[in-house]
Specification:
The complex is a heterodimer of chains A (263) and B (572). Chain A is mostly beta strands and 263 residues long. Chain A is built from two helices and 20 strands. Chain A folds into two domains: 33 residues; 224 residues, Sandwich (Immunoglobulin-like). Helix content of chain A is 13%, strand content 36%. In chain A, a hairpin with a 7-residue loop joins β13 and β14. Chain B is globular, with a radius of gyration of 32 Å. In chain B, the strands form two sheets. In chain B, strands 1, 2, 3, 4, 5, 8, 9, 10, 11, 12, 13, 14, 15 and 16 form a 14-stranded mixed β-sheet that branches. With 572 residues, chain B is α+β, with helices and mostly antiparallel strands. In chain B, α9 packs across α12 and α10 packs across α11. In chain B, a hairpin with a 3-residue loop joins β4 and β5. The longest helix of chain B is centred in the middle third of the chain and has 27 residues. In chain B, 31% of the residues lie in helices and 17% in strands. Classes of the chains: A mainly beta (263), B alpha+beta (572). At the A-B interface, β11 and β12 of A face α11 of B.
């Protein structure tokens, strides 16, 4: 009888222990859910001569998912002119996956940013274009509003100062202050039009590309060397834990293909 | 002599500075005590690690704050800045109206509250990393409340797009209201600006100003500073001129150039504002330009604040008890209809609603604040006007997942079937009766011209009365507010109905449902018993009896006087 009691007590304790450990693990995996880009600690711009090129394609594994149509609940006469779709997974012909960021994880020296590049996100038709935007640290991003409806630009930064700023219907162009630290991608929303969604990556170096409709990306003027090549996609996650290693030769081209599936 | 005075002043000033430094409100270093107090008093909701995930969190909306992200709603600081220690201390002390956060003024000593402030700050690295103290919003240049200021503010309310969420007259019923979520993805509602007492951070003019300039971090409420305003960087005259130019069908070349110059000026001002924000170098001239532009921004913000202030009463109305008890007013002839001006002539009785938390399913996060009631009666009928705010007009298009019933807005007015005789006589149980039944008027938004009469012996035990159609009903929904008008005969044939007569205090209670907040069945807001009375008609006899008594008394006195005089003469 006594043995029986002792055994069940032990069993109970073991169960409790397993339960606690399980809960702890669950909590940990929750915390790691936000998948981010990885940045080098320091980056030094320099002139790049006869650099190489990394290009390729990102494909989606599995059946092409149907894009969910979003309900336009507001300012229908402007926002409802075109149909709105959830752009979290955009798959084109030949399973091409749009809006994937492909980048060099561990580059510490290379070309400088293109200073003349116009950095904009348009809100035409109550939709952010592009859906994923790369913004160099310290550079101003301009929000466009040509529809004459009110928007509020809400950027959910954690490391940099979060932004929630009204862009009234009269404000065609609203530049936003440059940020101090590399971060992201961070989510961008408009609370007035709840369906609007985009992502911004604040980056410390220019070796970032976003795939187009054909799933293509190109990183140019890469100094010869060995690099870790990473990707990020809002619904498919990252490969930060096991990035691909590529070797770039001076003037050469490396081709890399990725096949991503939903998390 | 002069030097001595200066020296004295200097010492006095120095002492003052020292004293104020000693009293400067800064939290102590985080201590064991702070941790202990936090874990005993705060962790149940805010979680041991400050993630806003304590055991009680799930049932609360708004959710308890997650301290790890450093997003604090109620701050005296500019947008993107952390709160000051004093801000945190004040919130802990005063609590947050309209949420589950209580004030801790009596439960925790001031010292313990400061310890908690210090401990809370350890959850977010930003507090430690920031070298500079957070930048506070300046309250200088406050523009006093005036009709003109309110008028200017009203224009800004539209111009800045406040209507999108807060609605035309501020009842939080804007067209974006139903889709708002906070930074954690939980549903959140814009403030009803006509109910200042529900504001989390207080509704003094300064409080409202700070929320407007600094935004409410973690919520959809943006910050309005600098170039959120129309024509930032232009003087009032220039701004007027530009609007005039832009309204022209065609501009001349000179006008094109003029407008172009205005745009250049605005771009330059925005550039300076951004450079300051980015921590870049700016010249003294630039700072002057920036300050001039900001002066106009702050003036406009005070006007807007005054407008918002004009939308709300100075304080929460008193509940309809004691002197404020609901009195139905007697009128001769027909009772006023829903849209009659007569309803505007007296104050409504106010019945504050609370979530029903006695019986499952409960409502822990009510969205309806209270019902305002007015009433008239004549010799045969009584009419009631019920008015309540609801941000959304929900008529049952969607159904509740658990019950399968339609989610719709509704109101129920509850009376006892029989008025208890005397103040100590028992009333039916307030949750729709029990042993003693209640008589109910049940109105639903999907059938806005109809009120169903029910008899209930419990919250889940209501029966529709066989005899219906004794009530006349009108209702409207506009700008986030329902108005429901109900008329009935004072006396009916139905034994299950309440019979009314003047001068009797009749118990009355309310239940309200906000369909968009998931209210259905027992999940609702409600009141306990209140009372109302048909104010007795002042009798016309009051014009007859007092004069008669007066004349009689005077006559009596004269008679007495004559009698005494006569007796005295006889004696002599």
């Amino acid at each position: 009888m006594k043995t029986y009691l002792l055994a069940s007590l032990t069993l109970l304790l073991v169960c409790c222990y397993v339960g606690i450990v399980g809960i702890t693990f669950a909590a940990d995996s929750d915390a790691g859910e936000m998948e981010m880009l990885v940045f080098p600690e320091k980056y030094k711009p320099m002139a790049v001569n006869n650099g190489g090129m990394i290009s390729g394609m990102v494909k989606f594994e599995g059946d092409k998912p149907e894009m969910k149509m979003l309900e336009v609940t507001k300012d229908v006469e402007v926002c409802g002119v075109t149909e709105k779709y959830d752009e979290s997974v955009v798959v084109g012909e030949d399973n091409a996956l749009k809006n994937t960021i492909v980048y060099l994880i561990d580059i510490t020296e290379g070309k400088d940013f293109d200073k003349d590049a116009k950095l904009e996100i348009d809100q035409k038709g109550c939709k952010f274009t592009p859906h994923v935007q790369i913004v160099p640290v310290g550079t101003r991003l301009t929000m466009l509003n040509t529809d004459r409806v009110n928007h509020n630009v809400h950027i959910f930064s954690n490391i940099n100062t979060p932004v929630n700023k009204q862009q009234t219907k009269n404000r065609r162009k609203m530049p936003l202050a440059g940020v101090k630290k590399a971060e992201g991608p961070v989510s961008v929303k408009c609370d007035i039009h709840g369906w609007m969604s985009a992502w911004i990556a604040y980056v410390p170096h220019p070796y970032f590309a976003v795939t187009n409709e054909k799933g293509e990306f190109t990183l140019e003027d890469v100094p010869a060397g060995e690099y870790k090549l990473g990707y990020w996609h809002e619904a498919c996650g990252t490969n930060s834990a096991s990035p691909v290693t590529v070797t770039v030769e001076a003037g050469g081209t490396v081709t890399q293909e990725f096949t991503l599936k939903l998390k | 002599m002069k030097i001595r005075t200066i020296a004295l002043l200097f010492i006095l000033f120095g002492t003052l500075v020292l004293v104020s430094l000693m009293y400067a409100q800064n939290a102590p270093e985080a201590s064991e005590r702070g941790k202990e107090v936090y874990e005993n008093s705060c962790a149940h909701c805010h979680g041991v690690e400050g993630r806003g995930d304590g055991s009680a969190a799930e049932n609360l909306l708004p959710r308890p704050r997650d301290f790890t992200r450093g997003l604090y709603k109620i701050r005296s600081t500019e947008t993107g800045q952390l709160p000051t220690d004093q801000d945190l201390f004040d919130i802990i002390t005063e609590g947050m109206p309209g949420s589950s956060m209580p004030g801790w003024e009596t439960a925790l000593s001031a010292n313990d509250r400061w310890e908690v402030v210090a401990y809370i700050k350890t959850f977010h690295a930003g507090f430690k990393e920031n070298e500079n103290p957070p930048k506070q919003i300046t309250l200088e240049g406050k523009i006093p409340y005036s009709e003109q200021s309110v008028e200017t503010g009203k224009e800004l309310y539209v111009e800045l797009g406040c209507v999108e969420c807060h609605g035309n007259v501020g009842r939080g019923d804007g067209t974006s209201a139903p889709t708002l979520t906070d930074s954690w993805g939980f549903q959140t509602w814009p403030a009803n600006l006509t109910q200042g007492w529900t504001f989390r951070g207080g509704f003094d003019t300064e409080d409202i100003f700070k929320r407007f300039i600094g935004g409410i971090a973690g919520s959809p409420m943006p910050a309005f500073e600098g170039d959120s305003f129309l024509n930032f960087g232009l003087t009032t005259e220039e701004s007027k001129r530009l609007i005039e130019l832009e309204n022209k069908d065609e501009m001349t070349e000179a006008e094109e150039e003029e407008s172009g110059q205005f745009y250049e000026k605005m771009d330059a001002a925005v550039d300076i504002a951004l450079t300051i924000k980015e921590g870049g170098e700016v010249s003294a001239d630039d700072i002057q330009t920036y300050n001039d532009a900001m002066k106009i921004v702050y003036e406009k913000s005070w006007h807007l604040t005054n407008y918002v202030k004009s939308l709300m009463p100075e304080k929460r109305p008193e509940a309809a008890i004691g002197n404020n008890v609901l009195r139905s007013q007697y009128v001769q002839g027909a009772l006023p209809a829903l849209d009659a001006a007569a309803w505007e002539t007296f104050e409504a009785g106010y019945f504050p609603l609370v979530g029903q938390v006695v019986i499952e399913p409960r409502q822990f996060n009510p969205t309806i604040d209270g019902v305002h009631v007015k009433s008239f009666y004549n010799d045969t009928e009584v009419a009631f006007l019920f008015v309540w705010d609801d941000r959304t007009h929900t008529t049952g298009d969607e159904t509740d997942e658990t019950t399968g019933k339609p989610l719709e807005d509704a109101l129920a007015v509850q009376f006892p079937v029989k008025v208890p005789q005397g103040p100590t006589a028992p009333k039916p149980y307030f949750l729709w009766g029990g042993r003693l039944p209640v008589y109910l008027w049940h109105w639903k938004a999907s059938t806005p011209e109809q009120v169903t009469e029910l008899t209930a012996k419990g919250i889940n035990n209501a029966e529709t009365q066989e005899a219906q159609g004794e009530l006349q009903v009108q209702s409207t929904y506009a700008d986030g507010q329902y108005k429901l008008w109900v008329k009935r005969a004072l006396k009916t044939e139905d034994k299950k109905d309440l019979q009314l007569e003047p001068g009797v205090f009749v118990p009355i209670a309310f239940s309200a449902w906000d369909g968009s907040n998931g209210d259905v069945d027992t999940k609702r807001t409600m009141t306990s018993w209140y009372a109302f009375t048909l104010e007795p008609v002042p009798s016309s006899r009051r014009f007859v009896y007092p004069p008669i008594i007066a004349i009689l008394s005077v006559g009596l006195l004269f008679g007495l006087r004559a009698f005494v005089q006569r007796r005295n003469t006889e004696d002599v």
